[in-house]
Each structure stands twice: as structure tokens, then as C-alpha cells.
Amino acid sequence: MSYQLQRFSLESVHLTLQDWQTAVQDDDLFALEYQDLFKWTESHIQYEDKHLESYAYGIFTKDSPNTAAHAIVDIIQRPHGRRQTKLLKLVVSPQFADDTDVNNLNTLVDLMLAAVLGTVEISGRNSSSTIKIYGRTNAMLGVLRKLNDTITNSPTFTKSITTKIAGRWLEISLT
Questions:
Q1: Beta pairing, strands 130-134 & 84-92
Q2: Fewer CB within 10 Å, N- or C-terminus of the chain?
Q3: What CATH number corresponds to the domain at position 68?
């Protein structure tokens, strides 16, 4: 399946909330794990508001408008005078919570790739020369290390992109 990072509408936030609630099937667990995320998401989709420090984006199935997001991404686009974009957090749908399922792991990699490619696109629009992606969990850090190795060893990317791991961050410099 092909995914893409895109802006949320209020409608797509609500569709995502309903879809994720259905996947969790436990109101108390949903409130504990996801309710604050959706409150934050609703308050961070005013993409023209320059006073927001970060923005919520969704990862959706490509060419499927008005559907639920498979993941919610927290991106800083204009960090106070710096020419860098940061992908701070990626929260995947509860339907992918079983990280022992190989199909879910492949989907997680696809979702991360969509997040990274979308962040690169946002960086280009904002004239950012550096993208930083935070490995919040050990699993996410492992994906970032794999991505770093893939980019570093790819002749396609080495002319326009350099990468390095710095602590829990993957730093991508656009040349």
C-alpha cells in the first residue's frame, strides 16, 4: 500500500478519531492512550498560523481523500530563525500496535518512509536545509538507523542528501 503525508482537515481528524476508537474497542484505554493526542491534533491544524510551534499532519493512503489517517505526525516547520524542519513524533494507528506481526512491521516502515518523504517536501517549501527526525522509541530509532544506512549506501541519494545519526536524531542535510 502506498502512503503520503498530508494536512489534516477537521473532518479527517474526526474520521481518524472514530477509526482509532473502533480499533481500540475500549473507551478507557482510548482515553488514556489517544485522547490527548487528538485534542492536540485538532489544535494544530491551522497551517497558516505562524504562532504555532508545531503542526499535525496525517499519513493517509495515497489518493484516498476524506479517509482516516494511519498515523499522526508532529512536525516543527519554522523553529525560530533556523533553517531546519523537525519530525518530532509519529504515532501510528492502534491497528498496527502488534509489533511482532511482520506485516505490521513492513507497514510501519512504509509509514515512516511516507513521513520522511513528506517532511523533505515540507522542508523544500520552507527553504530548510536540515531535517531532524527523533527516534522516540527504540523501535523508531532502529528504523531511523536503517533509513540512515539505506540513504548513505544509495547512489541515488548521496549526491543531494547527507545523513548521520546524532544521539536519537537522524539528521538529513539537503545539499
A1: parallel
A2: C
A3: 3.40.630.30
